[in-house]
């Protein structure tokens, strides 16, 4: 009888294993919830929806975007790590939420971010402008002029950021340090890029780093003046705007990425299936055309393992920056 029981038990375990494997092989077999740590309309939200529309066509399953802004991305990250690691709750994050926040707000997290979150793939990176307002006849027309103005008028230049401790905040603070310890004042805006744009239009702030997707319209209409481009090369639409590297600041400014994350412990077959579907979506002409319109660079990782190495390198990079530039997070 004992032998018969063991045989029956083995059969049950094999059946359960086959069922689990089958479930993974069919992934996704139901809609996926994707957390975005920002309100609708920003770069991360735009990226998620463009990829999600094509993902749904490819897999036949919903890609349900859940906007969960607040607490520097910690609300979305917290929901992600509490979710079952089955590939049905994911997150699309960016530099601020998934590289800087885990470093500068480590003490506020009740878990070890590195052990609870895993990267699936990078998606896009987003060029940015270093720009100034033209409101109130602000005279600066180049990066050297901005530096000269700041030196001549210490404390008079206010710069906008999409939040205290966000990557645009670090970018401008690091630029000020590298350009000769310029005395410029940060004015964070809790309403993100749209809030910074309004501050610039009113002349409440004079300068900012803003991604091209958010600021291009204002540059084209002359409301903002682009002094430099944070990108690998100059953009075809702005051939006269030099890159920060050309101006002698290759390490200043962030080409902001958007990447896909899952709870750690998600089975490898699920991660691989997810990666394959997203990579296929990014390769379609429709998605490429939409991202080209936004001036976003499509930069998928080579594999899930490659994504995890890339994310680890990003964390090390931002550990260096956050040590070099001290920002009061109160």
Task: Describe it.
With 330 residues, the chain is of the alpha/beta class. It folds into 2 domains: 31-125 and 255-324, D-Maltodextrin-Binding Protein, domain 2, CATH 3.40.190.150; 128-230, 3-Layer(aba) Sandwich (D-Maltodextrin-Binding Protein, domain 2). 46% of the residues lie in helices and 19% in strands. The chain contains 12 helices and 11 strands. It has helices spanning 2-25, 43-59, 74-82, 95-104, 113-116, 143-152, 167-178, 192-202, 212-220, 268-282, 285-294, 304-324, and strands spanning 32-36, 63-67, 89-94, 117-126, 128-133, 158-161, 185-188, 207-211, 224-230, 256-263, 297-298. It has a 6-stranded mixed beta sheet. Strands 7-6-8-5-9 form a 5-stranded mixed beta sheet, sandwiched between helices. Helix 4 packs across helix 12 (304-324).
The CATH topology label of the largest domain is D-Maltodextrin-Binding Protein, domain 2
> End-to-end distance, in Å?
69 Å
Strand content: 15-25%
Determine the mean pLDDT: 91
Order of helices and strands: HEHEHEHHEEHEHEHEHEEHHEH
What class do helices, strands and sheet pairing give?
A: alpha/beta
How many β strands by DSSP? 11
Strand line-up of the largest beta sheet: 2-1-3-10-4-11
What general outline do the C-alpha atoms trace?
Answer: globular
Helix content range of the residues, please?
Answer: 40-55%
Number of helices: 12
* Most strands sheet: 6 strands, mixed
CATH architecture identity of the largest domain: 3-Layer(aba) Sandwich
Stretches with pLDDT under 50, minimum 5 residues = 6-10, 12-24
Specify Rg, calculated over alpha carbons: 22 Å
The level 1 CATH classification of the largest domain is Alpha Beta
Structural domain tally: 2
């Amino acid at each position: 009888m004992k032998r018969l029981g063991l045989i029956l038990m083995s059969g049950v375990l094999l059946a359960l294993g086959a069922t689990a494997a089958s479930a993974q092989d069919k992934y996704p077999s139901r809609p996926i919830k994707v957390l975005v740590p920002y309100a609708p309309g920003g770069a991360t939200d735009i990226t998620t929806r463009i990829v999600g529309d094509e993902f749904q066509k490819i897999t036949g399953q919903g890609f349900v975007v859940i906007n969960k802004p607040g607490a520097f991305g910690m609300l979305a990250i917290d929901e992600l790590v509490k979710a079952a690691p089955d590939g049905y709750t994911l997150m699309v994050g960016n530099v601020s939420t998934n590289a800087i926040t885990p470093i500068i707000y480590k003490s506020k997290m009740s878990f070890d971010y590195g052990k609870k979150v895993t990267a699936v793939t990078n998606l896009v990176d987003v060029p940015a402008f270093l720009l100034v307002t033209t409101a109130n006849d602000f005279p600066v027309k180049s990066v050297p002029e901005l530096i000269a103005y700041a030196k001549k008028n210490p404390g008079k230049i206010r710069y906008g950021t999409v939040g205290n401790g966000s990557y645009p905040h670090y970018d401008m603070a690091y630029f000020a340090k590298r350009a000769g310890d310029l005395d410029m004042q940060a004015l964070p805006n809790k309403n993100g890029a749209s809030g910074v744009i309004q501050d610039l239009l009113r002349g409440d702030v004079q300068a900012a780093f803003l991604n091209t997707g958010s600021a291009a319209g204002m540059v084209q209409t002359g409301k903002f003046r682009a002094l430099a481009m944070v990108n690998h090369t100059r953009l075809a639409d702005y051939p006269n705007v030099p890159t920060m590297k050309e101006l002698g600041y290759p390490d200043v400014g962030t080409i902001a990425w958007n990447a896909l994350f899952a709870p750690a412990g998600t089975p490898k077959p699920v991660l691989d299936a997810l990666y394959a579907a997203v990579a296929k979506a990014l390769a379609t002409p429709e998605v490429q055309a939409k991202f080209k319109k936004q001036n976003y660079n499509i930069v998928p990782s080579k594999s899930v393992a490659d994504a995890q190495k890339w994310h680890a390198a990003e964390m090390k990079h931002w550990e260096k920056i956050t040590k070099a530039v001290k920002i009061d997070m109160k």
